[in-house]
Amino acid sequence: NAGVTQTPKFQVLKTGQSMTLQCAQDMNHEYMSWYRQDPGMGLRLIHYSVGAGITDQGEVPNGYNVSRSTTEDFPLRLLSAAPSQTSVYFCASSYGDRRKTEAFFGQGTRLTVV
Amino acid sequence: EDQVTQSPEALRLQEGESSSLNCSYTVSGLRGLFWYRQDPGKGPEFLFTLYSAGEEKEKERLKATLTKKESFLHITAPKPEDSATYLCAVLRRGKSTFGDGTTLTVKP
Questions:
Q1: CB distance B95–A56 less than 8 Å?
Q2: What is the CA radius of gyration of chain A?
Q3: What local confidence, expressed as pLDDT, does residue A100 receive?
Q4: Model confidence pLDDT, tens digit, residues A33-42
Q5: Which pLDDT tens digit goes with each residue over B3-43?
Q6: How far apart are CA B103 and CA B108, in angstroms?
Q7: What is the pLDDT of residue A92?
Q8: Residue in B closest to A59 by C-alpha
């Protein structure tokens, strides 16, 4: 089982560049989310989706866009990278069922904006 | 706004020295409280889900409990391999809110 796959694992961007972080899951999960984790801190929710075609903002959405055209994929787009977006990004997925809601996480993308 | 606060931020134990980690939360319409373990350089790994006050779950040396305002992760006779950051999260309407975590170090 591949689970949740994130690409790339590492990325360096220059200020102002744009890029897309990829996330794919093969567990037929309804829910998918993007988080960022800064040193010594927990995970902060950027955007999330409860199903294909449905997305919503989390705690820190500014500077990021998402779309969910399929159940499997949930890409995160950085529109114009800023040094404040240097962080580790995690994608997660889970069932929407009442009793199967634990999240499965990818291995993360370490992004540095210079 | 949903809030999750974990304490302590860091905990150092000797092997075999039992202790507890705390997670206090403020959320209306809680659908679940989750505990995850995170090792350096890796994504969080699921440990437990608790759904209602009074519920308890156990796995090896770990036991999670839940009240209406907080959850505890009890670690009994820890081993060095239990060293990790432990994250607590609450779920409401498909949206998870995480605490900042407790970093546990167990010395042999």
A1: yes
A2: 13
A3: 63
A4: 999 999 877 8
A5: 999 999 999 999 999 999 999 999 887 888 999 999 999 99
A6: 16
A7: 95
A8: B97
Q: Quote the pLDDT of residue B30.
A: 80
Nearest to A101 among B41, B49, B87 (CB): B49
* Amino acid identity, position B6: Q
Q: Chain B: residue nearest A47 by CA?
A: B95
Tokens 């150092």 found at: B12
Residue A109's DSSP bridge partners are: A89
pLDDT digit string, tens, across residues A88-102: 999 999 987 666 678
| CB within 8 Å of chain B, chain A residues 60-89 | none
| Binary contact (B96, A50; C-beta < 8 A) | no
Give, for A48, the enclosing helix (H) or strand (E): strand A43-51
**Chain A interface, best mutation among B42, B51, B98, by max A CB count within 10 A:** B98
* Token pair of A102 as six digits: 């634990």
Residues 18-57 of A with CB under 8 A from B: 31, 33, 35, 40-45, 48, 50, 56
Q: Taking a C-beta distance cutoff of 8 angstroms, is the pair A68, A49 a contact? A: yes
Rounded average pLDDT over A55-82: 96
Tokens at residue B21, please? 């980690």
